[in-house]
Amino acid sequence: MAHIPSGLLEACVVVGAASDKLRELYQSHQQAKIKELPLLEVEVLQVHAPPFVTKESVNSETKGQGHAPAFTRVQRRRSFIKKKMERPCTANGEAAKGIDGGGGTTEDISVPKDLDLIALPQLCFPGGLQIASEQREDSYHYLVFTDVFGNRTHAVVVQYYRPIQFSQDGGHQNGHRLSSKSSRLYTAYGICVISKYPYYNALRDCLSCLLTQLKPSWMGDFEERVKEFSAKLSLVPIPPPGQLHVVFSLRPLQIVLPSREDKDRPAVDLDLHLPFLCFRPRQLLQIITSLLTEQRVVLLSCDWAQLTLMAESLMHFIHPLVWQHPFVPVLSSQMLDFLMAPTAYLMGCHLDHYEEVAAEVATETDDLILVNIDDGTMSSSWSGGVDLPDIPLAARECFLTRAEGLQMHYDLEVCHLGASTDVNDLRAQRRQWQRKLNTHIQNITLELIVNIFREVHDHLNYEHRVFNSEEFLRSREPADQPFFKKVLDTHIFHSFLRDRLNRKMDAFTRMELSTRTEAYRLRSMTESPRRPTMQELARKYTSPESRLSKRLGASLPNLGEGVRSLVGPLMYTSLKKIQVDSGLKSPQKPVRCFKLPEFPPPLAYHYVQNYYQEMITLLGKAISGVASEDSSLLACYHYLRGFVNTVAGKRLDALEDFQNLYKTDTDIFPGELVNALVDSLQDGERAQANRRTEIKRLISRVKRDHERERACHDDEGVKRFQLPKKHMQLEDFVRHVQESGIVKDQATIHRLFEALTVGQQKQVDPELFRVFYTFWKETEAEAQEVALPASVLEHLEANECVFKLSSSVKTSHGVGKIAMTQRRLFLLTVGRPGYVEVTKFRDIEEVKISSAPFLLLRIPSLKIKTTLRKETFEVNLKSEVDLWHLMVKEMWAGRKMADDHKDPQYMQQALTNALLMDAVVGCLQSQKAIFAATKLAHFDRMKLEVPMMVPKTTSETLKHKINPSLDLTSPQAVDVLLYTPGQLGVSSDSEGDGNPKLWCALSDGKVVVFDAASWSMQQSQVQVGSSRVNCMLGVDRQQVWIGSQDSVIYIMSTRSMSCNKQLTDHRSEVTGLALGERSKEYSPKVAYSCSEEGTVMTWDVSTLQVRKQFRLSCDRLQSVQLCNGTLWCCARDCIMEVWKNGTLHRKISLPEQLCGSPTAFSSLLLYHEKEQLWTACIDVGELCVWHLAEPTKPFQRIQLPDCAGVTCIIKVKNQIWVGGRGRSSGKSRGKIYVVDTQRHTVEKELVAHTDCVQALCSAEDRYVLSGAAREDGKIAIWKVE
């Protein structure tokens, strides 16, 4: 049977000195035989671990019950057998329970298998157990245990002293009175509470409550009280990820268990500002650097508690990176040999061992970092002090500025408040302040990690799981490279890379996306070779202070001219003026608390069952009282009730809760717990589960996901880019080029393969690839070093880059170098550098090779004629002339196509082609090099072979084109488009950025989101299942519903851009979604969905429950719409008007003239104002217009010229826009027809896609957006008149 997770408590262990040793010491002390009290050996005295009640112990009670009792989980155990000697000596004068005065007895202490009782006593008393002659203060410290799989267990230990008392005859004295004050001795007991969860403050508070009971009690009650305390903690459930905390009463305190922020983060139940109180921010950065570079780090302090708190805080600071090495914050004096470990580690020991560690351990290792917490200093085994590389400058300066603004003094927060008489009120006030401060610190440290590793994803190849580390290093600032050279080879970074390649939507990803500049987003819209922009060059050659912002999100802006450059002031340009909260104001999410019932007698099965039942009842009331729109809180309650039902043995009820959770918030769905729960089902329970459809589907889904996750773990490696070592056929060549990061597009790589293999066998040898790759990188490096004076920069746009620079040549305008950017050619004159404009690519009229006389020779030259000047520009390029001729013609052709088609990506592709030509010629160095380069002249050849003229109507109506498949290796079909309007006056902190958005569904469940204000890509490739998306619906401002071919409706949050809810009630592919009409302002919002086999469902949007469902008889139901209180359903063979209760009202069949043909309805449009129904068919180039009052036959048929079929129809103002396929200039094209609704005639015929138009949507009647099938894969933006 699988292991079901326990509650808060894993085990409670009591340690101390053996009674016989205490008696011997006490007698020696009374007889004045010892002058100094020695350290005693620590032993395990008690172990308490769940289950505390079992089915067997209450077998008679459980007869007739329909479910299994609590604590029936099977737990493998081993026994700790301890021989107990006669113990005349105990604390407080009372004999320990179960010990008689005779010989010894043997007690079997049941111990969880993961608990190491050999090391635990040492860790509970790391400095040794010291007998005292006077009462000492209670002392707390914290422990962390790590198993071989890296799973951590946490513990809180309290050391408290009790007096040792004996009668003169050696028997026990039963009271507190002693014969003389000098005879009093005190011994310490250690109580260690162990949990799987890092609730340090909460467990410390629990132990404080326990001590209030133990101190006045007799020793005879000691074991029973500890056992009862342990049993109570074992009943406490762990709060789910989210904003629901768990509160319980353990007199005299209220204990709070804070929830985790999300599944990937541990709970934060400690004070994260403690490291800032011990170290200056610069020193903290050094400590963080030592962790990121995986050094051997030793923390030292006189206070054992600070060691673990400091170490755990550091783990939070580097999140989401996870420490992969030994993590032992507390080492006892007997464990110091652990510091000789040959691997990286983070360990801690007492400051008394500083000299010993520094002298002995440092001689064996050369990278030991010693962190003195008490003095706030760092030192190392390096002779010259701490020799760690600096964290990158911009990230460092930003962190230091943020840290300066931290308000870490609680007294300043409460100085205006009066004194509270309730200790729990004071504690709640402090917790609220600490939570706010912890959140601020987490944001600051997360921003540090984001700023360090922000550009890693630019050098990842997701298809082949490759990280191009050399290219990443080369693109770093020289001063930052030592840091990255060390970090890139660490286990911690490798794990981080694996998460990036898995597109993990964690805290790092969310912050990285939310802090991207608009310039960066626009740059991500183009796939062009990376070069420094003029803006970056200007910053590079000015003062260092002005360069601090370079790595803080400022990236290359869009190279295309079709989109207006939005480059403005960069983030954090002046670090001196940064507001501490700028960019970091994440809203303090409201916290809700669930208070547990009062604890029952925890060792009685009947009471424990009643306790669980009471908790389940309270959670049921809480669920019914949650506001319908607060789905995240509802999910937390379902999670918690599912957990309680699980430990209470109500497995089917638990599965029902987890099914509701799966529909409400998949982000916090506990897959491992549910999988273990399913494995623990008895035969009878499994049979019942199979009879309940929803639970049966949940079980199959959980098992499928579990198997898929196991399979994925086997294929999650990260490769570093390496040059090939064998000859490459086309397929291998494509893979290596994509891994290298030179270019992604498969068609371009195919042309490159043709160029490199021209006139020879179709394979590329590894040496040629190496030379090509080296030439490409050297050219790139040369461009990085281009130094243009300010007098030249002022003539260029901020986002222009120099991509090619000729040697020094003679021109018709003097001697200099020809420079090529993505927009123009210009002459960089020699001597005193100056700027002479040659031409912009769009102004070129003719480019040809000529020859210029020089003495008795004729030197090859390039002549460029432009529309803006009469004279021809001539440049004597000598041997470079053929290459420049090809490059300029390709750029000219690309510019012309980009302008004609309003698609800036054509220019980017032309630029890539030109640079590949340069690299091919550079690496081949032969007579066939120029001929090989012509294979890459893609746009120039297209211009010659096929006239690419865009019809005038199309050109006037087309505004812009965008490519949603840019991150992919080949174009993907645009299956569905959805526009959601923006919200004025909405800040990014509360409801997203407030801008309108365009949602685009691509093949295989990929969804791309664009900011519709600038058409920049806001979110790339959110995976929505793995099947085709059929429909999307903007239900409200917070959620978008997505109907999939896999029969699931996915609900995507517009804020987090993740699918955290799923509706799984449909049994076949979801084909249509529609929003219901609200009769009253406060009436529930409803939505409708349909699936291809004919099922229509009515959903309550707030509760996500099915209110009604019915089934229609038809051939593939394709869509559903609501009009005047009835549903209109479009199927292939008919259109049906249905009442909301499912009763068929009217049915419209295919028009008579089409009944005999193999065609079918493709779409319908309801024109409410004119009471008309417009229909279209898949393989017919006409529209049919019907009267809604009498739809027996169409009263109007509108022929669409050169149309072979219609796929979609939308109404925009008084026009009908029709998308389909047809013919233009003798070729099959995607076509859009704009139909006048008054005259029923085609006003416009638009041709802008090379494949069928599959999707249309309107952007507030100002624009229409069209998406095309795979061969085109673009989105066109059209102006509406």
From TrEMBL:
<keyword id="KW-0344">Guanine-nucleotide releasing factor</keyword>
<dbReference type="GO" id="GO:0031410">
    <property type="term" value="C:cytoplasmic vesicle"/>
</dbReference>
<dbReference type="InterPro" id="IPR015943">
    <property type="entry name" value="WD40/YVTN_repeat-like_dom_sf"/>
</dbReference>
<dbReference type="InterPro" id="IPR051696">
    <property type="entry name" value="DENN_Domain_GEFs"/>
</dbReference>
<dbReference type="InterPro" id="IPR037516">
    <property type="entry name" value="Tripartite_DENN"/>
</dbReference>
<feature type="region of interest" description="Disordered">
    <location>
        <begin position="83"/>
        <end position="105"/>
    </location>
</feature>
<dbReference type="InterPro" id="IPR036322">
    <property type="entry name" value="WD40_repeat_dom_sf"/>
</dbReference>
<feature type="domain" description="UDENN">
    <location>
        <begin position="86"/>
        <end position="507"/>
    </location>
</feature>
<dbReference type="GO" id="GO:0005085">
    <property type="term" value="F:guanyl-nucleotide exchange factor activity"/>
</dbReference>
<dbReference type="GO" id="GO:0032483">
    <property type="term" value="P:regulation of Rab protein signal transduction"/>
</dbReference>
<dbReference type="InterPro" id="IPR005112">
    <property type="entry name" value="dDENN_dom"/>
</dbReference>
<dbReference type="InterPro" id="IPR001194">
    <property type="entry name" value="cDENN_dom"/>
</dbReference>
<protein>
    <recommendedName>
        <fullName>UDENN domain-containing protein</fullName>
    </recommendedName>
</protein>
<dbReference type="InterPro" id="IPR043153">
    <property type="entry name" value="DENN_C"/>
</dbReference>
<dbReference type="InterPro" id="IPR005113">
    <property type="entry name" value="uDENN_dom"/>
</dbReference>
<dbReference type="Pfam" id="PF25570">
    <property type="entry name" value="TPR_DENND3"/>
</dbReference>
<dbReference type="Pfam" id="PF02141">
    <property type="entry name" value="DENN"/>
</dbReference>
<dbReference type="Pfam" id="PF03456">
    <property type="entry name" value="uDENN"/>
</dbReference>
<dbReference type="InterPro" id="IPR057977">
    <property type="entry name" value="TPR_DENND3"/>
</dbReference>
<dbReference type="InterPro" id="IPR001680">
    <property type="entry name" value="WD40_rpt"/>
</dbReference>
